[in-house]
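user: can you give me the structure for this one chain? C-alpha cells are fine.
assistant: on it. calling the predictor now.
[tool input]
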Amino acid sequence: MSTCGKHLFYRDRKEWNDITPVPQDDNGRHIVNIAYSEEFVDAHDYFRAVLLKNELSERTFSLTSEILLMNPANYTAWEYRRRIIKEISSDLNAELRFVGSLIEEYSKNYQLWHHRQWIVEELSKQTANGSCNSLTHLSSDELRFTDDVISDDPKNYHAWQHRRWIVTFFKISVEEELAFTERMLLTDVHNNSAWNHRFYIITLDEGLSSSVLTREIDFVQKRISFAPNNESSWNYFYGLLVPLVHNRKYIISSETSKLSDEKSSSNVIDLMPKLQLMLKFVEDLMAVDHTVVDCLAPLSFLVEVYTDYLELHFMKQVNGGNGTSGKQDRFSRRLIGSKCSVCC
C-alpha cells in the first residue's frame, strides 16, 4: 500500500475505487517540469475526475479540504466547494472556522476572503428569519475577526476591504467604526488604510454635514499637529472639503444631514471660509513648529488649497458670487480609488 508517513493516498482508499483518476495534461508544452509532491499529484488527479463528474458529496467535500490545504489559492476548488456545501447542507459555522484558520496563515489570499464573505452571506440568510441577536452575533464576530487580522497586519488591504463590506452589509453604527479607526490611528497615525476607512464611514453613513465637517476637521488637525509630515492625514484633511457629490455642487440636506441634490443656496456649504481656516491652520502650525516649513506634505497641501481658493474666487466673480467648484473626485482617486505605496 502506498503511503507517505501517515498519509493514505486516494488510489489506495477503497471508497475511491469507483473513480478513475485524471492526470494533468500539459500537452507537452511546459518549459520545465514542476516538482509536485506525490500527495499533490494523487489528490489532484482524483479532484479532476470528480470535478468532471460534478459529484457533490461528502467525500468530494473532504477532498476539496485537502486540495485547499495544499493550495489555498485554487479558485476552482473553492467554487466547486461552494456548490458542494449548498448541495449537502454543510455546517456553515464549521466552514467559517475552516477558512478562518487558513486566513490566519494566508491573510493576503483573495480567494479566502471571497469565500468568507460568501459564508457570511449564507449564514445571514439562515438567520434572517430568526432573532436579531443572531445577526448581531454574526456581525460582531466578523468585526472581531478583521480586528485580529488588522492588529497583526495594520495595512492588510484584504482585511480592510472585508471590514468595509461588513460595515455596509450589516449597517454597523458610525460610532462603533469611528472608535475603531481612532484606536488604529492612535497606534499608528500614518496608517493610510485607517484614514481611508474613516473617510468611507463618514461619507457613507453620516454625510458631510456642517457638524460632521467641524468634528472631523478638529480630529485631523490634532493628528497633524502630532505628525506634521504625515501625508495620509493631510490628504484626509483636504478631502473633507471635496465631498463626492454627483451634481458637482457642495450641497447638504439641512434635514437629514445627508448628501442631497437640492439646489437651494441655503443648503450650499460655502467653501471659501473653510479654505481660509485651513490656510490659517497651516500658517499657525508653521509659526509654532518651524520644521513644518521643510515638510513636503503640508507644502503639497497648501498648493491644493491655494489652487482651490483661487478657483472658487475666480468662479464667484464670473458667476456673480454664486459659483462653486466643480472639482469633486480628486481626493477619491488619491485616497480611495487605488492602492498606494503607503497602505499596500
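assistant: here you go. Residues 92 and 122 are 8 Å apart (CA to CA). The longest strand covers residues 3-4.
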